[in-house]
Design brief:
This is TLDc domain-containing protein. With 85 residues, the chain is mainly β. It contains no helices and six strands.
């Protein structure tokens, strides 16, 4: 995403057959998806597990492989909750 152009943002909605959109685990910072779809590891690197996908395709960056994970740099991220009124 271009931080100066919010229209370039990609939003992923979890597929109906998965249970969690986001969760916290003691060894990671925020983890997105019902598994390790997208997470910040204890080494502060952002990673996604290449064999698991709770979300529809949002074009995860392909930087370099670290075991079975794709690792990539993130400049900034935002987590928010949508509340129906």
């Amino acid at each position: 995403m271009n931080k100066n152009d919010h229209n370039s943002a990609k939003v992923g909605h979890i597929k109906s057959n998965y249970g969690c959109a986001i969760y916290c685990y003691q060894n990671y910072r925020p983890a997105f998806g019902d598994g390790h779809d997208l997470f910040q590891d204890s080494d502060s690197k952002w990673k996604n597990f290449s064999g698991f996908c709770s979300y529809s395709k949002v074009d995860m960056p392909q930087s370099y492989m670290s075991g079975s994970y794709n690792s990539f740099d993130v400049e900034d991220y935002e987590v928010f909750q949508v509340i129906k009124k």
